[in-house]
From TrEMBL:
It comes from Blomia tropicalis (Mite). GO terms for biological process: proteolysis. InterPro entries: Peptidase_S1_PA, Peptidase_S1_PA_chymotrypsin, Peptidase_S1A, Trypsin_dom. PROSITE patterns: TRYPSIN_DOM (PS50240). Residues 35-290 form the Peptidase S1 domain. The keyword Membrane does not apply. PANTHER family: ACROSIN-RELATED, HYALIN. It comes from the Eukaryota. Keywords: Disulfide bond, Signal. Residues 1-22 form the signal peptide. This is Peptidase S1 domain-containing protein.
Amino acid sequence: MKFNQNILLIVIVLAAISVGDSLKCGVSHVSNERILGGTVAIPHQYPWMIYIIVEHDPLETNENAKKVYGQCGGILIDDQWILTAANCFVEHTQGYRVNENGPKTLLLMGAHNISDKKTEHWLTVHPEHVFRHEQYKNTTTSDNDIALIKLINPLKFDLVYSRIAPICLPSVDDQIDKNNCETIGWGRTTIDGGYKNRSNTLRVAKVVMYDHKECVAHGRRVNDLKVCAGYLNNRPCKGDSGSPLQCRNQNGQWVAQGIVSYGPTDCVGDKPSVYTNLAKFITWINKIRDAN
């Protein structure tokens, strides 16, 4: 009996360790081996990655039109909040309106292959509210392209949802290797064919994070609210808005340095993609979370 009690104690301790580790931001419980170059990621290697489906309803003046759906990426930053891009919740097609809140928007957590409903076991949740940055104007500058999504109920990071964990936000103490960063998402793999050419499986690509002078040298003019990154033809494409630019810190944790805002319209070429600079929005993020 004593032997069995010891075994039970060991199991409980191991379970507690597993749950406790999942609360630490920027930690993957999958092998550290990475598949780079715009190829398929290891399943569930990035537990903070969220697939977002936004429903667009036709206006009354467009009553014969069918509903359309937009896709974006997002990142979990704690048990009740997701970061994404504000442009995900702006109507880009005339005659439609975006349904931001409630059952019209779907958030898939812990997903890898979003077309495989039989063997994949993701968690589907709905937002309580979407908070777009109040100064995002959907202009050509794309300044303040950031939004926070609050979940209806906080997540419980336990053994059942071990595939779900938050990513870290930037800190002044971080030491980041900007030459060894990644961007991930389910966006299109080619510009042709619309969203039919999205990737069903989460993909990852190595990118280099540039400073402002380097951005200009690579054909991008950005301000302090943005950062740019690229490497060869590794870049996000349509459907990747809100997905992260992530780099490891000195502790080996993944830190979200940016979220996809925009890039070359043809998703190829030498120009790097532009990301919202999250380090400049920590105060805004905390303000929204504290007030809601």
